[in-house]
Write a structure and sequence with these properties.
- The protein is α/β, with parallel strands linked by helices and 223 residues long.
- 33% of the residues lie in helices and 26% in strands.
- The strands form two sheets. Strands 3-2-1-4-5-9-8 form a seven-stranded mixed beta sheet, sandwiched between helices. Strands 6-7 form a two-stranded antiparallel ribbon.
- The longest helix has 16 residues.
């Protein structure tokens, strides 16, 4: 439970905002110095996502996606824009969204909205998105805010739409990182929060070929 490790909620959020304001608006900055794993990450995410985009009665559409905690648009550029007609981005750091407009290049014309907002305060437009992608950002939300945000994401899905979380998982319990003011939860805690939000897990996968020294990374699809 984040309530056990987050003593002051206001400070938890404001400290994180301050941390990201000082991070360079580069792929390496987005990945905390691990820019070299970006291609492995994107290729695995594409394979994971494409199983839901294949033809079939419950096929997920490819009209519109939302990139949450989007940063400069690393995932928007390499994963979402190639697969979806339009993409929206949301991030708490204005400088990252400004940088995204040049980083995304010509294809960036298909990004309709750049929302500058923390996810604890963000509500996706109802009934609007085929995929809501949430990567390496859930640790910046308290349990209650994460559960509430996922409920709002559920309301933001189009028919057969999915919410995807990809993030670090702790071995056990909830671990606080004082440097960037975030938490890392174990698998059971994350699954409980997903259930609490009224979402059903469709798939769960551990990321392979990442460096040994970093947390295990898991991807979840749900609706």
């Amino acid at each position: 439970m984040t309530s056990e490790v987050v003593e002051d909620e206001f400070e938890f959020y404001s400290k994180a905002e301050k941390y990201w304001k000082d991070v360079p608006a580069t792929v390496d900055g987005m990945l905390g110095g691990y820019g070299h794993i970006s291609s492995i990450d994107i290729n695995s995410s594409r394979k994971f996502l494409q199983r839901f985009l294949r033809d079939g009665p419950n096929r997920t559409g490819t009209t519109r996606a939302l990139d949450c905690g989007a940063g400069i648009g690393r995932i928007t550029k390499r994963l979402l824009l190639p697969l979806f007609k339009t993409v929206d981005m949301v991030d708490v750091t204005e400088d990252f969204l400004t940088k995204a407009k040049s980083y995304l290049g010509e294809e960036g014309r298909r990004v309709c909205n750049y929302f500058c907002c923390g996810l604890q305060d963000f509500s996706p437009e109802a009934n609007s998105y085929d995929v809501i992608w949430i990567q390496w950002v859930i640790g910046h939300l308290t349990d209650n805010h994460l559960s509430d945000f996922l409920k709002r994401c559920r309301a933001g899905l189009r028919p057969n739409g999915i919410v995807v979380i990809k993030d670090n998982m702790a071995q056990e319990g909830v671990i606080m990182d004082d440097v960037d003011s975030s938490v890392c939860r174990d698998l059971d805690v994350v699954r409980k929060i997903i259930r609490r939000a009224g979402l059903h897990l469709l798939a769960e996968e551990r990321q392979e070929n990442f460096p040994d020294e970093i947390y295990h990374v898991y991807t979840f699809a749900m609706r």
